Amino acid sequence: MAEQTILGLDPSRIPDILTATWETLLMVGWAVLGILAFGIPLGVLLVVTDTGGILENRPLNRVLGFVVNLGRSFPFIILLVALVPVTRRVMGTTIGLRGAVFPLIVAAIPFMGRQVESALREVDRGLIEAALAMGATPGQVIVRVLLREALPGLIRGTTIMIISLIGYSAMAGAVGGGGLGDLAIRYGYMRFETPVMIATLIILVIMVQLIQWLGDWLARLLDRR
Amino acid sequence: MIRIENLTKVYTTPDGRQIRALDGVSLHVRRGEIFGVIGPSGAGKSSLIRCINLLERPTSGSIQVDGKEMTRLSGPELRRERRQIGMIFQHFNLFWSRTVAENVAFPLEIAGWPREKIRRRVAELLELVGLTDKAKAYPAQLSGGQKQRVGIARALAAEPKVLLSDEATSALDPETTDQILALLRRINRELGLTILLITHQMEVVKAICDSVAVMSQGRVLEAGPVLELASRPGSHLGRMLLPSWNGLTPSPGSSLVALTFAGQVALEPVVTRVARDHGMDINILAGELDAFGSVPVGRLLVELPRVGEELQAVLADLSARGVRWEVVARG
Ligand SMILES: Nc1ncnc2c1ncn2[C@@H]1O[C@H](COP(=O)(O)OP(=O)(O)OP(=O)(O)O)[C@@H](O)[C@H]1O
Ligand SMILES: [Mg+2]
Predict the structure, then answer these.
(1) Distance CA A31, CA A104 (A)
(2) Could you give the CA distance from residue A141 to residue A121 in angstroms, rounded to a whole number?
(3) Are B41 and B217 in contact, with CB atoms under 8 Å apart?
(4) Which residues of chain B does A126 touch, with a Cβ-Cβ cutoff of 8 Å?
(5) DSSP summary character for residue B211
(6) A119 compared with A7, residue with greater pLDDT
(7) Ligand 2 mean position to B121 CA, how many Å?
(8) Looking at ligand 1, which atom is closest to the CA of residue B12?
(9) Residue (of B101, B139, B100, B97) closest to A155 by Cα position
(10) Which pLDDT belongs to residue A97?
């Protein structure tokens, strides 16, 4: 049995590896949706409530800025553990896909908020003014000018977010169970099956490369400047 | 069409300093005219034009556009009013992610026009500014002049009653500037659109403005029809237009007089006739012939060998022939 290997990898591990890969994809996929759903509005708020913004609101801007910085200053592994009771309440479980996705989303929202903020700040003030001069409402300015003109930047920011998320998902999986991180720890670390470890690493590298390539391609395609 | 009364705008900088950008400005822009505001950098021209559509909230004063007091409008009312006021910009401010046609469609989209009506209106506007073949191009693929034409089409899309122009030709080369000015003139004539433009380029005022206000340090120094102001003795506008003649002194028994000929009289041999009638030689020291719109304006600095009552007689004769004069120095 042991001699039937693929570059040292026991073929009977392959189904586990495939399952773990699929779990990681699911974890990251769901987390991305959640992060975008909250991170984009957060980034928009950070920009429009700032001094000179179209919905200037200094107190709100300060509070948001503070909360975002707070969120970003927690190391993920600590947040992961600290969030366990909250995760249980919100998701009903702390393990598996559901248990891992929640802390991932919470941890990445502040990061994504800043990515969105910096992408939106790249939009020339003149464009916002032109839209306002044409009678656009704040909502129209946000959707039709800010978000639309910042799309390439938003895609670049999202790419960066997804790539960090893949790394974090390994940690979340290791705690909650599931995904490539969990697999690498169970076989590679606890049972000294180095080939499994290497296989997960190769899969992660390919994932990161693919996402970076896709993000760059899409951002370039949509950048009309 | 636009009536500005005692407008002030005070900016407070982040470090707490107060900058009085507009200091009691009053202006009246008549329906259908092209009104220019000229002045040096920092005079407050941009602040003025941005107060009109309330991109900048005035500190005090009144702004009426077509009889509506802008400073008292609610949010939705202001947006509705802004749709009636087109604006073009020095750096065009086109939406990079939108094609030319989509840029022009923007004001119509946000006003909730139906798709088919937008399509027809956009085609009409692109025809007007001569960019029909660029409908699907993106702004990054256009020249400066083409970009500004898109800006103009976009500003005109919702059929505004006023067009505001903030240094619309300042980023363009002279040839392109002429094309854009000609387009603005044509729009003004054909659509009867009132245009308020600000500029620091005298050529713009000369080329297309009917009226002009000269601004400096937040105040309007003078305002009126361009021709009248240019030929009014001692006017700032006149001085900006004239070749400078500082330091010239007349010989004893002579006077230095600046003459302005506006209109038909600029093309007539008035000076030689006056010289002949009064039996004297007129020494021409400096001069230029200019055109305001299509009206020729001539300016001469002459030395008349006359002083006292004899000088008065010559000046009266010049006035009678439609020449405006200003005695610069007496010998
Ligand atoms: N947002 C602002 N905050 C503070 N000061 C301002 C602001 N905008 C303009 N100013 C100041 O107000 C004065 C008038 O500026 P404004 O832009 O209206 O002049 P301008 O005539 O348009 O000049 P330019 O020809 O250089 O465009 C200047 O001293 C300028 O520094
Ligand atoms: Mg300016």
Answers:
(1) 6
(2) 13
(3) no
(4) 89, 91, 93
(5) E
(6) A119
(7) 31
(8) 4
(9) B97
(10) 82
- Inter-chain touch B87–A133, beta carbons under 8 Å: yes
Q: What is the largest CA-CA distance in chain A?
A: 75
Does the global pTM surpass 0.80? yes
- Given CATH 1.10.3720.10, say whether it is the number of domain A11-222: yes
Nearest Cβ partner of B95 from A135, A137, A145? A145
Per-residue pLDDT, averaged over A166-172, amounts to 85
Which protein residue's CA is at the shortest distance from atom 26 of ligand 1? B41
Domain limits of chain A? 11-222
CA B16 to centroid of ligand 1, rounded, Å:
16
Half-sphere exposure of B147 (CA within 13 A, CB side): 20
Asked if the Cβ–Cβ distance from A132 to B80 is below 8 Å, we say no
Q: Give the residue carrying structure tokens 């990445």.
A: A108
Is B45's C-beta closer than 6 angstroms to any atom of ligand 1?
yes
User: Domains along chain B?
Assistant: 2-227 (3.40.50.300), 242-330 (3.30.70.260)
CA B166 – CA B197 distance, rounded (Å): 6
pLDDT in tens, A171-205: 877 777 688 888 888 887 788 888 888 888 899 99
Q: At what angle do helices A151-176 and A14-48 cross, to 10 degrees?
A: 130
Question: With an 8 Å Cβ cutoff, are B95 and A129 in contact?
Answer: no
Which atom belonging to ligand 1 lies closest to the Cα atom of B22? 14
Digit-coded pLDDT (tens) for B238-277: 777 766 666 778 888 888 888 888 877 777 888 888 889 8
Closest atom, ligand 1, to C-alpha of B218? 14
Chain B: residue whose CA lies nearest to A225: B140
